[in-house]
Amino acid sequence: DGGITQSPKYLFRKEGQNVTLSCEQNLNHDAMYWYRQDPGQGLRLIYYSQIVNDFQKGDIAEGYSVSREKKESFPLTVTSAQKNPTAFYLCASSIWGAGTGANVLTFGAGSRLTVL
Amino acid sequence: QKEVEQDPGPLSVPEGAIVSLNCTYSNSAFQYFMWYRQYSRKGPELLMYTYSSGNKEDGRFTAQVDKSSKYISLFIRDSQPSDSATYLCAMSAASGTYKYIFGTGTRLKVLA
């Protein structure tokens, strides 16, 4: 079955450590996204990528980094510069371009990061 | 003012009730409207996708868009305990865009 796989599901980090969240998709989607979800707030965009080897900052990119070396993969690193990293992180993908379905995001199951 | 407003709930209804979930928005450029369902500790899944104004029906779910009032609704008929989840509205102004604006979500509890 096609979908998005995020790992790990739960992650604990000590202050000052970098951690990397994995996101893999087999939907053949061009675009991939990372969102952060906090209680009482809508999903906020961290980074997005339309094509391999290219990515753009979203609304809250500070303290995060990404790479897009393969179409299927879009890992997110939460660096020690992120002051409040405890959150639920969601990876998503979509078709990129005009037409039906281009605005439909498919989400992974999420990764919950807790800073100790 | 937030671009999208959504009542956080929780909204509790008895099994079999008709549920109405709503979002209001301020940006008249929004044309694409989506409703996602998110179970606890899971990722959102798409329920309904609507372009521009009008109604769309899929089984027990009906999505309505009123662009003149900047108001969208999701109706759930014959609600079931399995419908208990958080419902997120989302919208965008253009096809092929990275910019989606999400509501904060409404928590729904359907009581057996």
Percentage of residues in DSSP E strands of chain B: over 45%
Helix vs. strand class of chain B: mainly beta
DSSP helix fraction of chain B: under 10%
Structural class of chain A: mainly beta
H/E element sequence of chain A: EEEEEEEEEEE
Biggest protein-protein interface? A-B, 30 and 28 residues
Query: What is the global morphology of chain A?
Result: globular
Beta-strand segment tally of chain A: 11
Number of strands of chain B: 11
In angstroms, what separates the terminal alpha carbons of chain A?
36 Å
Secondary structure tally, helices of chain B:
0
Query: How much helical structure, as a percent, in the residues of chain A?
Result: under 10%
The major beta sheet of chain A can be summarized as: 7 strands, mixed
Can you walk me through this structure?
The complex is a heterodimer of chains A (116) and B (112). Chain A has 116 residues and is an all-beta fold. Chain A has strands at residues 4-7, 10-13, 19-25, 31-37, 44-49, 56-57, 64-66, 76-78, 87-94, 106-107, 111-115. In chain A, the strands form 2 sheets. In chain A, strands 2, 4, 5, 6, 9, 10 and 11 form a 7-stranded mixed sheet that branches. Chain A is globular, with a radius of gyration of 14 Å. The N and C termini of chain A lie far apart (36 Å). The mean pLDDT of chain A is 91. Chain B is mostly beta strands and 112 residues long. In chain B, the strands form 2 sheets. In chain B, strands 2, 4, 5, 9, 10 and 11 form a 6-stranded mixed sheet that branches. In chain B, strand 4 (32-38) and strand 5 form a beta hairpin. Chain B is globular. The model of chain B has no long low-confidence stretch (mean pLDDT 92). The interface between A and B is medium-sized, with 30 and 28 residues.
